[in-house]
Amino acid sequence: MTELTHPNINDGWFRESTTLWPGQAMSLKVEKILHVAKSLFQDVLVFKSTDYGNVLVLDGVIQATERDEFAYQEMIAHLPLNAHPDPKKVLVIGGGDGGVLREVVKHSTIESVTLVEIDEMVPQVSKQYLPAMAAGFTHPKVNVHIGDGFAYLKEHTGSYDVIITDSSDPVGPAESLFGETFYDLMRRSLRPGGIICTQGECQWLHLELISTVLTNSRKIYPVVEYAYSAVPTYPCGQIGYILCCNEAGRDLKKPVRKFDEEFEKTQLRYYNAQVHEAAFVLPGFAKRKLEA
Length: 292
Fold this sequence. Notes:
Number of strands: 13
Active site: 166 (proton acceptor)
CATH class of the largest domain: Alpha Beta
Strand order of the largest sheet: 9-8-7-10-11-13-12
CATH superfamily of the largest domain: Vaccinia Virus protein VP39
Order of helices and strands: EEEEEEHEHEHHEHEHEHEEHHH
Largest sheet: 7 strands, mixed
GO cellular component, one term: cytosol
Family: Belongs to the spermidine/spermine synthase family.
Shape: globular
Helix content: 25-40%
CATH topology of the largest domain: Rossmann fold
GO molecular function: spermidine synthase activity
Protein name: Putrescine aminopropyltransferase
C-alpha cells in the first residue's frame, strides 16, 4: 500500500496554510496520516497527532482535534440554547463532524435537530476517525440533510427556535455564510424569540471582519452580542461566537436555563453557567471596536 502524503505535512509536522492569519501558523507533530482526499468542495485531511489525538483538517486549516474540540462544541451549542427559555427545534448548518449535534441533544427540551452539511465527506470521515464527536449522528432526534444551507433556509421559514452555524473560515464553501443575506435568511427561518449563533472568528486577527458582521447583523436583529472562548488549536488559541435574537429586550449574556451541578460535572468539560456570562466580557481593544 502506498504511504499517504500531504503537502501540509513535512518532516513529521503538520503546518497550517492560509492567508487568513498572515505571519503565523499552527503546527502539530504527526504520528500517522489517516485520510487524504479531495471532496467536491475542499481538501480533506485526517491525521493522528502525537499529543492532540486525531485531527480533522479542511483546506489546510485545523477544524477539530480530539483533545480540545469540546471547548468549541460546548460553547457554540450551549450559549444559544441556554439563552432560550424553551428550545424545541434546532437547525445546525455545517458542523459535519457531529460535535454540535452531540451537545444539542443533551438538552431535554429538544424535540428535533436537523444538520445541513454541504460536504458529505465530512460526516463520513468524522464517523470513522472522530467517533466521540460523531456520536451525535446516532441520536433518534437527529436528522441529516446533505445540501446547501442557503437553499434549505429558503424552504423553512419560521421553523426553528435556535439556528447554529458551525462554519469553517470565510474562504471556499463557507465564504457566503458570513454575509448579510445569509443572516437575514436565518432570521426568516426563526420562530418568534428565536436565537442564532455562528462561528465568529478571532478578535486578534479578524476584528474588522467581526465588526462588519456585527454591524450588518444589527440592521437585521434587535439583539446582537459577541462572545468568545479559548481553544488551543484555533488561531491565537481563541474563537468567537456571534449571537442574535429576533426579539427586542432579550439578554443573551445570562442563561435563562441552567444545567444542574451534577450534569455539569459529568457531562460537560468547558461550559457552565459562570463561563456563559464571562464569555461576553471582552478585552478593552475588542470592546471599543465591536461596541462602537
